[in-house]
Every structure is written in structure tokens, then in C-alpha cells.
From TrEMBL:
Coiled coil: none annotated. The chain crosses the membrane at residues 29-51. The keyword Phosphoprotein does not apply. The lineage of its organism: Bacteria, Pseudomonadati, Pseudomonadota, Alphaproteobacteria, Hyphomicrobiales. SUPFAM superfamilies: Thioredoxin-like (SSF52833). Cu cation binds at C97, C101, H185. Keywords: Copper, Disulfide bond, Membrane, Metal-binding, Transmembrane, Transmembrane helix. This is Protein SCO1/2. Pfam families: SCO1-SenC. It comes from Rhizobium lusitanum. Belongs to the SCO1/2 family.
Amino acid sequence: MPTQLNERRGGSRASLRAKEEKAMFTKEWSVPAILTVFLLSVCGLIAYFTWSLMPPTKAAEDHIGGAFNLIDDRGQPVTAQALKGHPSLIYFGYTHCPDVCPTTLFEMAGWLKTLGPEADKLKAYFFSVDPQRDTPEVMHKYTGNFTDRIIGVTGDPTEMQKAIKDWRIYAKKVPSPDGDYTMDHTASVLLVDADGSLRGLIAYGEDKDVALQKIRNLLK
């Protein structure tokens, strides 16, 4: 009995010491540890966002794009080879777009007109992110509202989705309350060189002079 009692007491003392040590550890280390983890997390986030906002390097750009088999707005086959031998402007959108697409195509037509002969070797494409509704006929009529210089490109939904993915374009169908749908999508114009490689972007709503200078740099 005494031994068991002593063992219990010994156990109680050990338990008490453990609790005291735990409390000391919590007081001495928990706040610094939490601050350290927090600061490391903040630094990690800053590093990530800094990296993500940096313009892509040539090596990274060379991995954007890929083979595709689509059709233009006159029903003719279009492959990645169509982007070779001349610089191109590529915009991904859809004909049922209420605002961003018509605004961008209007601006593209304006750039081509302003550049005049400078843009003779430049081609402009309007790739559909909504091939279910954007037939070649629909695309041809739609692009004709802006200029005959912009070539509409559509095709099989699977092939179209592949092109969208390969060019790192965001495109998502958004159902409407009335049963219809719209498309959320990347709103930038892609600047593609004569090798068919991405060399930059023109952001939606970018200043006209800035956009024109980017195109002139692409044409050099």
C-alpha cells in the first residue's frame, strides 16, 4: 500500500511537473512560433504573387500553344500552321458576348486601320470559346460587323477546347436564370510572332497608344 501510494504521489508530482513544463513551453514558444509561421506564410505569398505577375520568359512562352484542327468562318480548315510566317493577333471570345468581345473586336479593327500598310503582314483571329453556337456562318457575319481583316475560327467542341487549354485561356460556361448561358473568358488579345509563339498580351481596355506600340514591336 505505501509503495502504491508513493507511486501515485510520484506520478502526481511527475504529472504536475509535465503540466508546468508544458505551460512554460506554451508561454515561451507558442507566440514566437506562430509569428514565425505567419511571417513565412506571408513571405511565401509575396514570392508567389511576385512570380505570377512577372511577364513570361521566352522559354515559358514557347510552351504556350499547340497543334489544332479547326475551321475558319468560310468553312476552310485551320491548323497551327496558319500562325506561322507572319505575326498574329488572337482573341478568344464568342458572338453572344454582350460587351467585352464587341468592344475588343472594335478596338482590333481600329488598330489595324491606324497601322495601315504597317499591318499588311499582320493577321488577326477571333477564336470562339462557344463553338456550340458559333458556327462558321455565324462567325463570318459577326466579324464582318467590324472588319474583313479579322478571321473567325471555330470547330469541333473537343478540338476547340484543346486549343483553349493549349493557349492557357480561361473559359467557363455560366448558366443564366432564363435557361440560357454566357461565357466567362480571358479578355486579353494575344500577340503571336511569326513562329507561332506567344510574345505578349494586350489587356482589355489598354490604352490605344500602348497597344499600338506593342503591335509595332511585334512587327519588327
